[in-house]
Write a structure and sequence with these properties.
heterodimer; A: 113 residues; three-stranded antiparallel sheet; B: 219 residues; mainly alpha; elongated
Chain lengths: 113, 219
């Protein structure tokens, strides 16, 4: 599991972007979706999630706005920008390339070993 | 429970700078932690345990705090260039003011040009100089917030305040220039030296009106 979580952590930004492609969302909703999609095998630490938000915001790949909750603390919603969409497209291409390369390197061109 | 979470967050972010950014981050975290906590409770977990799970899920806040401490360094090189440019424009305009008087004397005394034309020429040069000063004051880049601290907000407020002050100053200097020119023009042409000084009192009144107008606009 440790290799898996290391790899996933390296792609936190991409995972967040993929969740924002369809609609705006907030921290806990994104983390819950990650949990559900991985059948409770993986969950981001809040610290990781929010520093990724800040990095994405600084790179203007996402923007944020406050929701208008009347009770309790306000939620901060994030939405993907056009720049974020094109960056996400590029990430997917890069990931496909990386996947093929790592397959080749690990299996040495022979997947049955 | 809300208070308990807030206290815990305050402890976790004890070392974070007290900026708007950290306040917002804490508020954001709090909302999400409450959501998580409520979800855990509705799935049948006891309150105490849910609190512990939620808190341990935060992870290492060091990175977050480090990011909050980072400040965008004010671009020093650009500000030096801007200052030089602004100084050049200012010197040119002051030079024009002085030149305009020289030209006035030259026209009337040496070249024997009609006084009215000479005064008009001087006023035109002065107008150009004043336009340069206004342009310089208005086009100066606003102080951009380097960080969301109260100090930065104060600097930004002060900076916008001085831009406005510069604008008022420029407008008033044009007004006084026009009044002085009018004074001489009317006095020389109509020979009403006995009364024409009243124009300066009117000028003082207009001066106050300009200040008042800006103050009212601010409200």
């Amino acid at each position: 599991m440790s290799i898996t979580s290391d790899i996933i952590r390296g792609h936190t930004e991409t995972i967040i972007l993929s969740h924002l492609v369809d609609n705006d969302s907030y921290g806990y909703e994104i983390n819950k979706a990650i949990q559900q999609k991985t059948d409770n095998q993986y969950e981001l630490k809040e610290a990781t999630l929010y520093s990724a938000f800040r990095r994405l915001e600084q790179a203007t790949l996402i923007t944020s706005y406050w929701g208008n909750q009347t009770t309790g603390a306000r939620r901060r919603y994030y939405s993907i920008t056009t720049l974020g969409r094109s960056a996400f497209k590029q990430y997917k291409v890069d990931w496909e390339d990386a996947k093929q390369l790592i397959d080749k390197l690990i299996y040495g061109g022979n997947k049955d070993v | 429970m809300y208070e308990k979470f807030r206290q815990r967050l305050d402890e976790l972010f004890e070392n974070a700078p007290t900026t708007n950014r950290s306040r917002e981050l804490k508020e954001e975290l709090l909302a999400n932690l409450m959501d998580k906590h409520n979800d855990l409770i509705s799935s049948g977990i006891k309150e105490e345990e849910a609190f512990n799970i939620t808190i341990s899920g935060i992870g290492d806040t060091d990175e977050l705090i480090r990011e909050l401490k980072e400040k965008n360094v004010f671009d020093y090189g650009q500000s030096v260039i801007d200052r030089k440019k602004s100084a050049l424009v200012l010197s040119i305009s002051i030079g024009l003011y002085i030149m305009s008087v020289v030209i006035l004397i030259m026209c009337t005394e040496v070249l024997n040009i009609n006084e009215n034309i000479a005064v008009c020429l001087m006023l035109t040069i002065d107008a150009v100089a004043t336009c340069l000063i206004i342009y310089n004051a208005v086009s100066r880049p606003k102080y951009l917030k380097a960080d969301d601290t109260i100090v930065e907000e104060f600097k930004e407020w002060k900076s916008s305040n001085t831009t406005e002050k510069n604008m008022i100053k420029s407008i008033k200097s044009i007004m006084w220039l026009v009044i002085t020119a009018l004074y001489f023009l009317l006095s020389f042409t109509l020979y009403i030296w006995a009364f024409s000084w009243i124009i300066f009192i009117i000028g003082a009144a207009i001066d106050r009106i300009i200040t008042l107008a800006f103050q009212l606009r601010k409200k």
